Amino acid sequence: MADSKYLRYYLLALLSFFTVATTEQFSPAAEPPMPEVEKTLRRPIDLTRVGKWIVSANHLEGSVSVIDTTRHTFRSETKLGGRIRSLAAIDQSNILLAVDEENHKLIPCNVVQGHVSSFQTADTAHTPIDVVVDRDGKIASVSCLWARQVQLFDLRVTNSTVSPDLSVTIDLPFNPGIQWIAPDNEHLFVADHFGGHLALIDLKTRKLRMIYQIGVHNIRGLALSPDGEHLMLTHQLLNDLAATERQRVFWGTVLENLVRAIPLQDLLDRAADPASANIVKVAHWLQYPLGEPGNAAGDPGDILVMDDKEIFICFSGTSQIAHEEDLFHPLERHETGRRPVALETSADQTRVYIANYFDDSISVFDREQNRIVDTISLGKMKPWTQADHGHALFFNSRLSLDGWYSCHSCHPDGHTNGLLNENMSDFQIDSPKRVLTLLGTNQTAPWAWTGNQSTLQSQVHKSIHVTMQGGNSRLATIANEQAIVAFLETLSPAPSLSEAHGTTTHPSVLRGEQIFQSRQCHTCHIPPSYTSKSKYDVGIHDEYGLKEFNPPSLRGISQRNRFFHDNRAQTLIEVFSKYNHPQTGPPTETPLTPAQISDLIQFLRTL
Hints:
This protein is of the alpha+beta class. Among the domains are: 103 residues, Cytochrome c-like domain (Cytochrome Bc1 Complex, Chain D, domain 2, Orthogonal Bundle), CATH 1.10.760.10; 108 residues, Orthogonal Bundle (Cytochrome Bc1 Complex, Chain D, domain 2), CATH 1.10.760.10. It contains eleven helices and 36 strands. The strands form ten sheets. Strands 5, 6, 7, 8 and 9 form a five-stranded antiparallel beta sheet that branches. Strands 14-15-16-17-21 form a five-stranded mixed beta sheet, with helices on one face. α4 packs across α7. It starts with a helix and ends with a helix. The N terminus is likely disordered.
């Protein structure tokens, strides 16, 4: 099976080599009127349609912009909050819901004559990043990233107003991201934002039914397949056994970009089986590789299936959209603005609208003409800082060989996919190490598990030239390395789970802190960064006997799912009970009791 896959890639690579690509040049459209607001960076991150209006969620500006689909003109911009992350429209109405991830709000709105007005907001759990509405317009579901919770709201709709009332909060063992409601309008799927889980929530009973392990990461698109029988996911797949050598990157064996189609009925049947475990592995699926050697498709994003069964996909890392009716065929690609992240259609589905995150624009793809016919600016952008340039580079898979993956691919939104990667940081092969979070990384010198990178720029340089094999990219410059460092320096540590839940004053926290001090944990994990510059032997070693590691920071440790350099511990409880971490105390020191472990973990959950 593997040989046939590589043969297919080889033939496609030869075909692309001997084919001369041609591109049409189009005259730029007349510049639409600019919104009457101060120059800023909007960063459109989501789109929805309300009647003839396309509404864009402007992430950094905390506003929504309205586009007239009949004239392809900018209509209005309305400030709603701090950082608007997601939108959902109620069918057959002018009502819109938005979530503000900065202020933790669900914001009901309506759209009248191209202008948005908001109503009384509702509080959500920490960091809401996605909102969906059922087909009856009665339930809204909000996924809250750092709280690791999904909240269901009852919607009371009166004329053109809506009032959301919190019904239930459901805890999850992962950080939830995008959501999708099945055609039966009774089952809600919630994707892991960083790793490879998929939760199923019953909207009738409002309970968590099942968690599926898929073994992937960066799930950024969910849709019903054209045959109506499969749940389609866009995602990435990291091979922890493939070193980041040039040939392995070239053939796509290090990190694959894929669409996976899982039989929907299999998922529902498994959840209905009373004998099933709460967490199960998905056993059956179809898999469609995206891109090929020499022409990769890094960071696949939003996926949209039209009524006539044509499929559109954002290739966010390579700044393209692609479309085809059969994903077993090579997809036709079109260049867009920088980092397309969201898709929406006109009411008659003759046109597709594309949110270009780093260009503050909406592209318009005409399906009959089979090309992008217009690009609508959301407003004049302020001059970019060095960190702004670094931000765009972080999400640009053109920084890697052939565009296979970006920094974001292994560090989603700056965090971690929690997987193992063999990037030879310890100068060995076949001893993969866990991908570390970059949130708060400017406080954690030195870098890499062995602490062999003394500056953040040297770590970035190594990542571009070795991990990404991007040395021949025109983007692999010292100036761009410095820009990425400037961006990384803006990233704060992930908020602790206790902070996200508002439970930092738990009675056992003080006891856990005392244990942390008495067991000398603070000698390796020194506050306030909770790491140190040295390497330590904590009683574990890798495949080559390496046993001294630089301690990762404990800031935000409750937002990680596996621990140690090789992910051998699946929970914090295992860190202390199964592996007796750190195994460096006096010989007479007794192991921690279950009660002490519980207290210590409660303290760690506050960091």
